[in-house]
Design a protein that fits this description.
single chain; alpha/beta; Rossmann fold; 3 domains; six-stranded parallel β-sheet; elongated; LacI family transcriptional regulator
Length: 338
């Protein structure tokens, strides 16, 4: 016999209206009351009997400097929407801003919505931030990040291997002085990419020169401004840079050119993401292509598997990338060493 809202009301002592509002994630029910009701509902199998019809794609902003209206996230959302529709689910796009006064109330609504599975875009989030989502009553899959202590499945980019391959490409072109254009704002993706950079150099026994690590604001204007300021100090430069992403790479190229450097003749640059304007920049940008739509589609399939089959071991799925060779890297005369 299925558990009813009336029975949950009798067990908890709260009114039918309060129970209904709590189970549907509506406003007006305080946090403690909602948690008591949901605990009873879970224990009596009520939530597992409800049909999940929506996929709630939650865009969680912490700083907002990384997650913005760029083609990267637009393509990711397209992949989510296409796969959800194909599988018979409705996509709901929901923005969650940690700086908003409504953050807590919106978060509670998301966590208590038993009719929606959750895809959490966690690009900007830390391990501590993820703890807020452990109270979700519906299955949840993390997108574009990974947390070792988290109980959730995750779908993300193979960041480390991708940058290792990019640095290996530069080494193959004769470069030994290879720098890194590093976002001042550190997120998991950038940390993994920096690990790939360091790993490639260490494996080839090439010294890592900290002078070649340039910290830039991860926006078009900010990265250009910071690179311009850096170049005004007349620093010793490497023969090549790898960047945390395309936005930083292209802004740095603009600054380099305005300071009289030729790209790639004087300095080679590699980006990451393969945003649409990389192909029309001058020079066109050598970069790492991320299959953004595929990542969105795979995340949906992973979530639906959780919805249909319940809990199991948590998994980390890394999406492979493709190295895109264009015009922003030149070949140097190879030395006998390395």
């Amino acid at each position: 016999m299925k558990t009813s809202i009336r029975q949950i009301s009798q067990i908890t002592g709260f009114s039918i209206a309060t129970v209904s509002n709590a189970l549907n994630g509506k406003k007006g029910v305080n946090k403690e009351t909602a948690e008591k009701i949901l605990k009873v509902a879970k224990a009596h199998g009520y939530l597992s009997e409800r049909k999940i019809t929506n996929i709630n794609f939650v865009i969680c902003k912490k700083s907002g400097d990384i997650i913005s209206d760029t083609p990267f996230f637009s393509a990711l959302i397209e992949g989510v929407e296409m796969e959800s529709r194909k599988c018979g689910y409705r996509t709901v796009i929901q923005k969650l801003d940690q700086s908003s006064v409504e953050y807590e109330s919106i978060l509670e609504g998301i966590l208590n919505d038993g009719a929606s599975g959750i895809l959490l875009l966690a690009t900007e989030l830390s391990e501590e931030d993820i703890k807020d989502f452990e109270r979700a009553v519906s299955p949840l899959v993390i997108v574009d990040s990974w947390y070792t202590k988290s109980k959730f499945d995750a779908v993300l980019i193979n960041n480390t291997d991708s940058v290792t391959a990019a640095v290996e490409y530069l080494i193959g072109k004769g470069h030994r002085e290879i720098g890194y254009l590093k976002s001042q704002l550190r997120i998991k993706n950038f940390t993994y990419r920096a690990q790939g950079y360091r790993r490639a150099l260490l494996q080839r026994r090439i010294p890592i020169n900290e002078e070649f690590q340039v910290k830039l604001t991860p926006t078009t204007e900010g990265a250009y401004r910071d690179m311009d300021s850096y170049l005004r100090t007349s620093p010793k430069l490497p023969t090549a840079f790898v960047a945390d992403n395309d936005i930083i790479a292209l802004a740095a190229i603009k600054a380099l050119k305005q300071h009289g450097y030729k790209v790639p003749q004087d300095i080679s640059v590699i980006g990451f993401d393969d945003l649409p304007f990389c192909n029309i920049s001058s020079p066109s940008l050598t970069t790492v292509r991320v299959f953004k739509q595929d990542m969105g589609r795979l995340a949906v399939r992973k979530l639906i598997d959780r919805i249909q089959n319940g809990v199991g071991i948590n998994t980390k799925t890394e999406i492979g990338t493709e190295f895109i060779e264009r015009d922003s890297v030149c070949e140097l005369k190879k030395s006998n060493g390395g």
